Amino acid sequence: MWHLQLACPQPLCSSILKKAGLYRTIRRVLDIDGWYLMATEYLECRRCKKKVGGWSQGIVRQLPPTYNCQFPAVLTYEYERSENVCSLPISCANTLWEQHSDAWMRRAIQYLGVCEQFLALGTTRGQIAPPPQMPPVPSPVWLLTVYGYDVLTRLDEYKARITSTFGSILKMDSTKMVTKKLAGAASGRAAWASNVGNEHGNVLMSILTCCEGSKGLSKMAAGLMRRCHLAEGPAPQLIYVDCDCCKQDGVSKTLFLEWEQLIVRLDIWHLMRRFTSGVTTESHELDPTFMRQLSYCIFKVDAEDARRL
């Protein structure tokens, strides 16, 4: 239909594929308000004679963006998921259940209405079979797994976007909150999650380390400097950190030695925490009120300056 020449996806073969009949399996696809069936055809290599389904990733990746974006589903072993389905697992499962229930109820009412008309005309005798049960909606775990498969198909695109993000004003911070949520084999293997963002709110890099400081962040800093050097872009002028901002040989300054003009400053959140560290703790009931008032004092806008803007 599109008159495209598709190459064999086998690593050692690049011959042109030809049609080889309909694929024997019909896939059942989960959509936002129901299920539908999807079929494809076999494609056979003229050289190695191996057959491949038309919906395999080796074939879909060869399609131009004009046709690739029309592929409707993400394929898994047991079911398929339409790309119209949202990505948050719990809210997605609830939304799917509501949409599926509503669509099934409309079809059931339509079916019972038609059956009632046949009974009224006397063309049908006996009892009408009840409508079929609504097919069950997959669990949030399954939806999250399929979402992971969908992300993997666009992994190269995500890497390209992340590694092409720069900034003139950076902020680097480390936290333990993320590492506490790690489960499975990764649980307990990382102590810190460190992030570097720019003035636009974009994340340049995020890593997990076993320790904080130059030992844990040296490879991350080297990667950022190498990225900037390869892109031949201007080096950042300012970086906000949570500590060692007043030392000429502090950790942040020594990490980015190639950026000689880089100025290291303390970010505003940790400046505010310096005020509260000597008088209270975060668990104190007045701590939120004090922080709000402190933030208001620091970020208060001068009326005359605002008028000039």
TrEMBL record:
<dbReference type="InterPro" id="IPR046616">
    <property type="entry name" value="DUF6729"/>
</dbReference>
<feature type="domain" description="DUF6729">
    <location>
        <begin position="1"/>
        <end position="152"/>
    </location>
</feature>
<protein>
    <submittedName>
        <fullName>Si:ch73-112l6.1</fullName>
    </submittedName>
</protein>
<dbReference type="Pfam" id="PF20499">
    <property type="entry name" value="DUF6729"/>
</dbReference>
